[in-house]
């Protein structure tokens, strides 16, 4: 079965507490596991950046559902391409809250999120590609 990687950025409609983020993660884990979807959600300063990996038709339906979630707005797909392998194979949904500044690769992740917000590149790479390369190594 072939898989795609879909990466999007969106803006939170309100400040998210650690318990809000834990609730989002729990719901995503429960929804994604039976769909064969893996990925990671990053949160920083009121912005989300999410990587979803799975069958293309499944990701398309899931993203349509995600767009309707009232906890965020201005959702924009940065990357939606076939992948040779999953970058986040162990997680039906990982969560990294960059507001706590304890995350591994903190500076690089903040740079990716800021580049995605501003629609600018990191070196010669799109932010989504830079993010995927960061975790693939």
From TrEMBL:
Matching InterPro entries: Acylphosphatase-like_dom_sf, BLUF_domain
GO molecular function, one term: blue light photoreceptor activity
Record Gene3D superfamilies: 3.30.70.100
Domain BLUF per the UniProt entry, residue ranges: 3-94
Highest taxon above the source species: Bacteria
A Pfam family recorded for this sequence: BLUF
Protein name per UniProt: BLUF domain-containing protein
Record organism: Massilia aurea
């Amino acid at each position: 079965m072939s898989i795609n990687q879909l990466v999007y950025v969106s803006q939170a409609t309100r400040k998210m507490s650690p318990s809000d983020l834990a609730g989002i993660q729990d719901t995503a884990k429960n929804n994604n596991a039976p769909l064969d979807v893996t990925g990671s959600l990053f949160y920083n300063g009121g912005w989300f950046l999410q990587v979803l990996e799975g069958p293309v038709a499944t990701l398309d339906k899931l993203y349509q559902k995600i767009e309707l979630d009232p906890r965020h707005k201005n959702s924009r797909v940065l990357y939606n391409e076939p992948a040779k392998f999953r970058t986040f194979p162990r997680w039906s949904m990982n969560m990294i809250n960059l507001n706590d500044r304890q995350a591994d690769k903190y500076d690089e992740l903040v740079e990716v999120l800021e580049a995605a917000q501003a629609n600018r590149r990191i070196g010669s790479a799109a932010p989504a590609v830079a993010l995927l390369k960061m975790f693939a190594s």
